[in-house]
Amino acid sequence: MFKKSFLKYRTKKANKLNSDARMSVKYGSAKKIGLIFTIDDIQKHHAIKKLIDDFKSDNKEVIAIAYLPSGKDNYEFLFDFFTNKEINFWGQLTNEKALSFLENEFDFIFNLDKKTNIYTRFLLANSNAKCRAGNFSEEDDALFEFMIKPTNSDINSLFSDLIRYIKKI
């Protein structure tokens, strides 16, 4: 309970302190892309692998980090991940892979969840991305420079709509 309260506070504070570095980037000139997502099911896992292949075919460097909730499988152990146990009582991240992810200066970070959670919000707020993109949510308005409402409710629609609109920038 206290850990989540501290994490919410640290997320809000980080987003305020980190808001000056944001700007719009043309997809064609973007070099480095970050992906943040929660591990849900095997279909999402396969869709993310395809998305990474699509970015790489556009000559983009892609780095992904996943939040692994309790009781979920990390399919193929393909993606670096962190758990809620790797955030201490004071809301500080202790996972080396996630801390390393946050050190990157991304042109874009895509949140690939239909709905963010406290852990993915924390990463978004602390990222050095020029542009953070994800699914539309009034609650997350301050965390994103670019949000969409997908044409359908499935995860593939979210991914394809995000990419289609980002490529038009």
Unreliable stretches covering 5 or more consecutive residues: none
If you average the pLDDT, what whole number results? 90
Provide the CATH top-level class: Alpha Beta
Helix count equals: 5
CATH superfamily: inorganic pyrophosphatase (n-terminal core)
Main β-sheet, spatial strand arrangement: 3-2-1-4-5-6
From the alpha-carbon coordinates, what is the Rg to the nearest angstrom? 15 Å
Helix content: 25-40%
Gross geometry: globular
Largest sheet: 6 strands, parallel
CATH topology value:
inorganic pyrophosphatase (n-terminal core)
β content, as a range?
A: 15-25%
Order of helical and strand elements:
HEHEEHEHEEH
DSSP E strands, number: 6
- What is the end-to-end distance? 41 Å
How would you describe the overall organization of this protein?
The radius of gyration is 15 Å and the shape is globular. It has a 6-stranded parallel β-sheet, sandwiched between helices. Helix 1 packs parallel to helix 4 (118-126). It has helices spanning 2-17, 42-57, 96-103, 118-126, 155-167, and strands spanning 32-38, 61-67, 80-82, 108-111, 131-135, 146-148. Helix 4 links the parallel strand 4 and strand 5. The protein has 169 residues and is an alpha/beta fold. The protein has one domain: inorganic pyrophosphatase (n-terminal core). It has 5 helices and 6 strands, in the order αβαββαβαββα. Helices cover 37% and strands 17% of the residues.
Secondary-structure blueprint of this entry?
Blueprint: H1 2-17, E1 32-38, H2 42-57, E2 61-67, E3 80-82, H3 96-103, E4 108-111, H4 118-126, E5 131-135, E6 146-148, H5 155-167
Helix pairs in contact: 1-4
